Every structure is written in structure tokens, then in C-alpha cells.
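Quick one: structure for this chain?
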Amino acid sequence: MTSKREAILDAYRDEIAEHGISTVTLESVAARAGVSKGGLLYHFPSKQALTDALAQRLRDYTDANLALADTRGTARAFLQTSRPATAEAQHYWAVITAVQSDTAAVSEHTRQIVHDVFADWSVRLKADISDPVLADIIRLVGDGLYLAAVTGLPALPARRANRVINHLIAAAETSDH
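Got it. Here's what it folds into:
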């Protein structure tokens, strides 16, 4: 069962995705979440607090994916998580939309989290793959796959995407030997 806090964050994410952050109000989020404005304010005293919480969710997704790198290998974990589930993709889109809006609802903390999510993977790929050009190619392909999923842009058919991913994983594993 989803907690009220999580329902509020889901509602905020959906409101941003549908209307953009500048037109989202605390009242519209509360109504969508099925809570009173007071109930929303109990959990999140401002739009900035809501946006910070969305960014923290993005950080949590990334941390879980980075943990997979410890068991699967960095290239494999990065590429295999570059086609996120719908909920993660929607979440990411809402955070990026918020950050790009440059409103007071976006703190420097939120901006730093978004920066760090990208930087953490980049650093990890460069540290774990001996060929720096291959590390960059893997990052760019993974980012492209993720962007297509997040934005709904045309993506490679699943079979072709799997072939690309497997090819890059094999190249990374070969370069490290």
C-alpha cells in the first residue's frame, strides 16, 4: 500500500509531467493525491520540499542501480538499467522538467543531485573500463537509451537494443583483460 507521502510525491510528479512545474499548485497536488492541503503541508511545507523529495527518489533509483554494478559489473549494470521501468522514467522526466524550469521550487540541492546522478555513473565507468573512449561510448549509449525511455522518443526495437547492449558489454569485458 502506498503511503500518503508517496501518493503526494506521485501526484506531484504527474502534475509536473502534465502541466509543467510553473503551473502546479499545492492545491492541485493535494487534490490529485486525495489529501487535504493541510495533509500535504504536513509532509511537504513547500513546492521546493516536494521537488527535493523527487530528486531524492531519483538519487535512490541511481543508488540501487549502482549497487547492481558491484555484482554485475559496471558496464553491464549501467546498460541494463538504461531502459528504466515506466515509473522511474516518469519520475526522471518530472525531475528534469523541474530543474530546467529554473523556478524557486528547485533548490541547489536538487540541481546537485541531478548532476551527481550523471557524474557518478561517468566516474564509475571510467574507473572500471580500461579504455576511456569505450567508457564514454557506453555512457553515451546508455544515456541515449535512457533519454528515449524518459521522453517517449523512438527507441531501438528491444531485440536490437539488446544486441547493442550485449556488444558493448562484451567490448568492456574484453578491454579489461
